[in-house]
Structures are given as structure tokens and as C-alpha cells.
Design brief:
This protein has 467 residues and is an all-alpha fold. Helices cover 72% and strands 0% of the residues. The protein has a single domain, classed as Amino acid/polyamine transporter I, CATH 1.20.1740.10.
């Protein structure tokens, strides 16, 4: 029962230096990265319809908000660093928790860092030479990862200040892009679908959920602040607030900026774009527009990689602390109180993924396809943990409760399950690769994880579903 209590208390050896502004900045920085500048093009190409295009963004936004309701209940009840790893730890047997953490490290979370780093590098180097080598792109992406890793090893307070700076810069730049997208007036003809682009019925539903993996990637990261829960002041209040405020702000910005893209380019030209934001700003303002959007992408992706490196390293630290991962990753720097070994291991594997991506024709999209299915499997388990924990711990304090339970969670799970099956159907080989890498964790769990860590410590409280 002592271990049960540790799941719900606020004791930590880390320093609580992050207030609501820094926590909110982490949410904004984690969501706004490369996605909104690039993924609208493949989403429009797949859906081939303005209506279905908006459907992807609206359904994705709805799922994100409903998912945040679930996370708000979980993190307010368990303000521990590690994000979904902590929630799974409380809800399921240790092997489930371990596999989620293993998949996060080797597939999904480092994969997301690699994708955004590659996009930053592509954007920066294309200015110098449009025919730049993909190996040069990989080299610059790797340098970015290690530079920011070193910066994050000098204390959470410095990292928090960087979050505030980059979140304000991102919001300002996106606002400029939205204004420029309407600078030549409103063009209603660009919001009409070409005759041959109509998609309806089941084909339309499949198109929406096929494109959703790029939409979810653009929204991904909203849970980022929960990874650093042990470094947040008053976490039971500040973490739920940061989720709701941050996601709402980004949702509004995304709808506005996508409308600006369509207004400027129209659906056909938008679907053909490689970097839709750059094409839109080239049309809107010529060379000046290209310069602005290039600067915006670099600022946004730089800040996003920084935030990802900061928050995700806390999961590997939490896993190692529980003896479910490489033991040396559980150490904290004596002076700066940061999990530096976890940061360095994260950077090393991300580097290998960046190098691996050079074999793909479109590295950015390939990385997203690689981790989408695996992520969705564990997302389903994480959202379902709200139900499991209400059954296992009905009497634990819940400063926030999911609104309209259980209908909210039912909707979230339905969207995630449909997305998961569609991703497996439309991207089978990348999905299979993610599954194989996740499965390798079973060998580590069997031979390397000590017996005491395999015991189910998630509690055996009085049973009874808490409404």
C-alpha cells in the first residue's frame, strides 16, 4: 500500500520551478511544431475535398479536447512525471506499462523528435541550396538534437524560460501568416471542390481517417506538460488548466491558418504542395512571404524540438526509477537536478532514427507512418485507464473529473479505434515495423527487468466504479 500511495502524492526529488505560464507554454510549444506548416498538404491530397479536409481538423480537434478531459482527471489525481507512462502504471500490470515506455522510446516519441528535426533541417538548408543532399539534412537535424539536449541539461528553470519565449514567437508568427493569407481579400472560388474531387460515403470516411494520422500528428504533444508534472508548481490545478487553455488556443489558430491556406491556394494547388505554408506565403507576398514563412518554420520547429527533448526525457527517467528501463537513466544531476543520462540516451536513439530516415523518399511522412499505429494502440489503453482507475481506486481524491463520464471516453475510444484500424489498413508495412520494434521489448522485460519490478504494484483497493 505504500507504493500505492506514492502514485498519488506530490513528493519528488526534482525541483518545482514551472508555473502556469511555463506549463501553458510547454503545451503550446509541443503542439505547434512542423505539422501545421506541412501536413495540411497531404491531408488535402488524401481527402480531395474542402469539406472532408475540415472534417479531419475538426474531428482531430474534438478528439484532442476530449482526450485532454481524460488526461486532466488522471494528472490531477497523479501529479507524477512521465505522462501516460504513469497512468498506465497505475491501471495495468507492469508489462503493459513497460511496453508503452519501450514503444515511446524506440518508436513513437523519439520518432516524433526525429520528424520535426528533419523538417527544421530541410527548411533551413533549402534556403541555401534546393538540391541539398538528404545526408546533409540528416547531419544538421542531428546537430540540432544534440545542441538542444545539452541546453536542457542545465536545469529546468532555463528550459522553462525558453518555452515562454518560443510560445510567444510561434503565436505571433502564426497570426502574421493568417493575416497575410487574407491580405488580397477573400476568394470564395478557392473553397469549392473541383468536380472530380468529390468523395462521399464509406470512401469519404476512409479518406478522413487515413488523413487523420497527419492531423493527429499536427495536434500531437498536447499532453506534453504531464511529462514534467513533478517540476510544476501546484500541479493538480496548473496542469489541467494548461491543457484546456493551450489546446483551445491552438485549435482556433489551426482552423484560421488552414482557412488562410485554402483562401490563398485552393484545394488542387494545396494538395500538390510539399510545404503548403511556403507555397501560400509565396503567392500572398512573393519573396518576402517566403522569407517570413521560412523564419516561422525554423522558429516553430526549433522550439518544438526543444520542448520534446525536455518533456520526453522524464519518461525514461521515471521508467528507470521503477527499474523497468536502463538503470543509469534514473540518475539526476547533482547541481542542475535534471535527468541528464535520460536526455543523452534519448538523443542517441533519435540520431539513429534520423539516419534511418535517409533511406526513405519522403523522410518526414515516413517517420509519421512508422509510429502512428503503435501510438494509437497505447493511446486507447491510456484513455481507457480512466475507467480502470475509477474501478481500482474509487475513493482516491480526484480534483478534476471527466465531464459527461462515461460518454466522453466512449467517443474518444471510438475515434481512436477507427483511426488505429484505418492506419493498419492503409500503412501496413510502417505499422508492422513499429509493432516489431515494440515486441523486442518482451526480451528485455524477460531477461533484464528484476523480479520485484514485475510485481503488480498498481493497487488492490476496494472495488466499485466511481461515477
Amino acid at each position: 500500500m505504500q507504493k500505492d500511495a506514492q502514485l498519488f502524492d506530490e513528493k519528488t526529488e526534482l525541483e518545482r520551478k514551472l508555473g502556469l505560464p511555463e506549463t501553458l507554454s510547454i503545451v503550446v510549444n509541443r503542439i505547434i511544431g512542423s505539422g501545421i506548416f506541412r501536413t495540411p498538404a497531404p491531408i488535402m491530397f488524401i481527402t480531395a475535398s474542402v469539406g472532408l479536409f475540415y472534417g479531419v481538423w475538426i474531428i482531430g480537434g474534438l478528439a484532442t479536447i476530449l482526450g485532454a478531459l481524460c488526461y486532466a482527471e488522471l494528472v490531477a489525481m497523479m501529479p507524477k512525471s512521465g505522462g501516460p507512462y504513469v497512468f498506465l502504471k497505475a491501471a495495468y500490470p507492469p508489462i503493459v506499462t513497460f511496453l508503452r515506455g519501450w514503444a515511446m522510446f524506440f518508436v513513437s516519441e523519439t520518432g516524433a523528435i526525429a520528424a520535426v528535426s528533419v523538417f527544421f533541417s530541410e527548411t533551413a538548408l533549402t534556403i541555401i541550396n534546393p538540391e541539398i543532399s538528404k545526408y546533409t539534412i540528416a547531419a544538421v537535424a542531428t546537430i540540432l538534437v544534440w545542441l538542444l539536449t545539452l541546453l536542457n541539461s542545465f536545469g529546468i528553470q532555463l528550459s522553462g524560460r525558453l518555452q515562454n519565449i518560443f510560445s510567444l514567437l510561434k503565436i505571433g508568427v502564426l497570426t502574421i501568416i493568417i493575416i497575410m493569407g487574407f491580405s488580397s481579400g477573400i476568394h470564395p472560388e478557392n473553397f469549392r471542390d473541383p468536380d472530380l474531387s468529390q468523395t462521399s460515403g464509406w470512401a469519404g470516411i476512409v479518406a478522413i481517417f487515413t488523413a487523420m494520422r497527419y492531423g493527429f500528428f499536427a495536434y500531437s504533444g498536447w499532453e506534453g506538460a504531464t511529462y514534467v508534472a513533478e517540476e510544476v508548481k501546484n500541479p493538480r490545478k496548473n496542469l489541467p488548466r494548461s491543457l484546456f487553455i493551450g489546446i483551445s488556443l491552438v485549435l482556433v489558430l489551426y482552423l484560421l491558418i488552414n482557412t488562410a491556406y485554402i483562401n490563398t491556394l485552393g484545394p488542387i494547388q494545396m494538395g500538390k504542395a510539399k510545404v503548403v505554408a511556403a507555397d501560400a506565403m509565396q503567392v500572398a507576398a512573393g519573396t518576402i512571404g517566403t522569407l517570413i514563412i521560412t523564419s516561422a518554420i525554423m522558429v516553430s520547429t526549433f522550439g518544438n524540438v526543444n520542448t520534446q527533448l525536455l518533456v520526453k526525457s522524464r519518461t525514461w527517467y521515471a521508467m528507470a526509477r521503477d527499474k523497468l528501463f536502463f538503470g543509469r537513466l534514473s540518475t539526476v544531476h547533482i547541481k542542475y537536478k535534471t535527468p541528464n543520462n535520460a536526455l543523452y540516451a534519448q538523443a542517441l536513439w533519435t540520431t539513429l532514427l534520423i539516419l534511418f530516415s535517409t533511406v526513405a523518399e519522403n523522410a518526414y511522412e515516413a517517420i509519421i507512418d512508422y509510429f502512428s499505429f503503435t501510438s494509437s494502440v497505447f493511446n486507447v489503453l491510456t484513455f481507457a485507464s480512466v475507467i480502470v482507475l475509477r474501478y481500482k481506486f474509487p475513493d482516491k481524491e480526484r480534483p478534476y473529473r471527466v465531464w459527461a463520464f462515461p460518454f466522453t471516453i466512449t467517443i474518444v475510444l471510438a475515434i481512436q479505434l477507427i483511426f488505429m484500424l484505418t492506419t493498419l489498413y492503409t500503412a501496413p508495412l510502417p505499422s508492422l515495423l513499429g509493432i516489431i520494434l515494440t515486441s523486442t521489448g518482451l526480451l528485455y522485460y524477460k531477461y533484464m527487468v528484476p523480479s520485484e519490478a514485475k510485481l503488480d504494484t498498481s493497487g488492490s483497493a476496494d472495488r466499485g466504479l466511481s461515477q
